[in-house]
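Entry 14: structure prediction run for NADP-dependent oxidoreductase domain-containing protein. Input pasted below.
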Amino acid sequence: MAAKRSFHQVAKQVATRTLLLSDGKVIPAIAWGNGTGGLAKGGDRAVLGGQLALEAGIRHLDTAQSYHTEAETTAAIGATGLKRSDVFVTDKISRNTFKGKERTRENVRESVINSLDKLGSKPDLLLIHDIRVPDQGKIPEFWRYLEEMVEDGTLGGVSLGFSNFRPQDIEAVMSVARIKPVVNQVEFHPYVYAHLEPLMELQARHGITMAAFGPLTPILRHPTGGPLKPVLERIGAAHGLDPASVLLLWTVQKGVVAVTSSKSEGNLRKIGAINTLPDLSLEEITAIDEAGKKIHFRFYKDHMTKDFAAPDLPEDV
Ligand SMILES: NC(=O)c1ccc[n+]([C@@H]2O[C@H](COP(=O)([O-])OP(=O)(O)OC[C@H]3O[C@@H](n4cnc5c(N)ncnc54)[C@H](OP(=O)(O)O)[C@@H]3O)[C@@H](O)[C@H]2O)c1
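Run finished. Output tokens:
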């Protein structure tokens, strides 16, 4: 699917902030996702968005079965003239592909093979989208099915991980894992930092890198902006950056992959620029930590606080 846009050649080599996963793979720390902003139905808009993101210097695309954008993710790479190997692709196995079917070994395999067909290649990283993708209480079995596909070559070279997993869900995987998970993608920003610190500690013990979706929630979705607003503005003003760029820098400096999105060329340029901006100072990072921990505000509510209690903090001060 080719987007209707003439496009100049995208530089193959760009400076990219990266993190090292525990299996030795290098992951670009700034990712562009096509699961939000009206892109999740796929089509030309998702291809064009991906092209623009790559043009802006982003080298990590985030898709999922439920976004219906797997083919568009690959098409976006093709449309830029970049090679598939120039870009890191994260994909997710979502609930919708099972349509009420049990998650048997055969059905999980079929779902994954459908994704490989749509992508036209293997993703670099494949995540279980959330804890309801496996049948209830069957996270270990589901993990084993994925491991078997890595071991038989179907998913050879693909790193495995999950998304929206709480400590107890991670322990369920670790109780059986022959292939260690490398990433947990969760809603992550300063307003959930106090809640997620124990999760980060557990993940650090198991070598699991955090990836942040919704990293711009404090400025986009909190009703007032909360206590971070003046802090982000002050730090931004000191560096000539907008609050979004400050938040994204904070995220990657925490050792977390920032999975953001945009359809605006101007914002995409700012997101791509994170790759080459100087770090925030330790004082600035600490000021953001402290302002963030004054409240607890989560946008994607779902199950993350079920049996993993959120801190007793207000939603605003
Ligand atoms: N695993 C999961 O369960 C899960 C859940 C949700 C999302 N995700 C993934 O994470 C991706 C990002 O999620 P998200 O949309 O919640 O991320 P986000 O980073 O919190 O928000 C993205 C929004 O930020 C805006 N933006 C970007 N740069 C900006 C700037 N400089 N100033 C002001 N606004 C700016 C964009 O709007 P403009 O278009 O106007 O720039 C875009 O709509 C999704 O597409 C998806 O791939 C995963």
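Notes: The pocket of NAP is lined by residues 33-37, 62, 129, 163-164, 185, 213-217, 220, 242, 244, 259-264, 267, 270-271, 300 (CB under 6 Å). Will compare against the previous run tomorrow.
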